[in-house]
């Protein structure tokens, strides 16, 4: 099944009307106070299963190995998101990485090797989401040391080992939001305006820049 077929089926399963068509590789925004649209950013890149036969830390590529939980327990009661996990070949389990500032994080790699994230803002009934980011992003790597979810909309996500701070920058290099990393997780709580974030920058404990990642274009208005 092609990625476009998967996106079409996820859109049909999602209970929220979408005013504009979904486009690849544009990510879907996670609406505040509404059930999230499950997203897939690009076509999967096949990776041999043997590459993930080692420890869970090797699987995720970060020190925080998390605790194994059933996929059905990650976002229960949200059939569109459950279907998204099935469509994107997540498997039977994910790793619970912890809860930071009211946001619970889960992660795994699917059968294609893509890094998949599920989030649950535990104090808000409907603010949840799931997505897989293409293996071509090579997280974690020298160029990609932070994954924000949803991309370029909020400064929440998972960071590589050695990252102490994650910042969102505009096109002029001004810092729009900055947040510390705790156990590979970061949550700023800032809702960033659509299209305002041009780069995600990571810094070490001494303030040295580790990476400066261009962000994908924002979703179409109304999606």
Q: Estimate the strand proportion.
A: 25-35%
Biggest sheet strand line-up:
1-6-5-4-3-2
User: Portion of residues in helices?
Assistant: 10-25%
Largest sheet: 6 strands, mixed
- What form results from the Cα inertia axes? globular
Counted by DSSP, the helix tally is 3
- Helix and strand succession? HEHEHEEEEEEEEEEE
Give me the count of strands.
13
Our count of domains comes out at 1
CA distance, first residue to last residue: 24 Å
Structural class: mainly beta
- Low-pLDDT residue intervals, each spanning 5 or more residues: 1-57, 217-223
Q: Residue-averaged pLDDT, rounded? A: 74
What is this structure's SSE topology?
Blueprint: H1 3-13, E1 39-40, H2 56-60, E2 67-70, H3 79-87, E3 93-100, E4 103-109, E5 115-121, E6 128-133, E7 146-148, E8 154-159, E9 165-169, E10 175-180, E11 185-191, E12 199-203, E13 209-214
Parallel strand pairs: 1-6
Antiparallel strand pairs: 2-3, 3-4, 4-5, 5-6, 7-8, 8-11, 9-10, 9-12, 12-13
Word description of this protein:
With 223 residues, the protein is mostly beta strands. The chain has one domain (3-214). It contains three helices and 13 strands. The strands form three sheets. A six-stranded mixed β-sheet has the order 1-6-5-4-3-2, with helices on one face. Strands 10-9-12-13 form a four-stranded antiparallel β-sheet, with no helix packed on it. The protein starts with a helix and ends in a 9-residue tail after the last strand. 40% of the residues are buried.
């Amino acid at each position: 099944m092609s990625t476009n077929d998967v996106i079409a089926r996820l859109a049909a399963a999602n209970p929220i009307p979408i005013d504009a068509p979904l486009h690849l590789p544009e990510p879907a925004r996670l609406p505040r106070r509404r059930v999230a649209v499950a997203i897939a950013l690009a076509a999967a890149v096949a990776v041999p299963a043997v590459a993930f036969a080692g420890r869970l830390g090797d699987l995720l590529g970060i020190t925080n190995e998390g605790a194994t939980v059933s996929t059905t327990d990650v976002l229960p009661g949200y059939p569109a998101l459950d279907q998204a996990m099935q469509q994107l070949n997540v498997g039977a389990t994910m790793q619970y990485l912890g809860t930071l500032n009211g946001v619970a994080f889960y992660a795994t790699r699917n059968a294609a090797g893509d890094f998949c994230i599920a989030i649950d803002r535990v104090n808000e009934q409907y603010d949840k989401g799931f997505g897989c980011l293409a293996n071509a992003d090579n997280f974690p790597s020298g160029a990609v040391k932070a994954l924000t979810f949803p991309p370029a909309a909020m400064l929440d996500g998972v960071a590589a080992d050695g990252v102490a701070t994650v910042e969102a920058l505009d096109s002029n290099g001004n810092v729009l939001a900055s947040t510390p990393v705790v156990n590979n997780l970061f949550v700023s709580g800032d809702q960033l305006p659509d299209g305002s974030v041009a780069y995600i920058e990571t810094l070490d404990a001494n303030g040295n820049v580790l990476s400066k990642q261009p962000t994908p274009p924002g979703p179409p208005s109304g999606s």
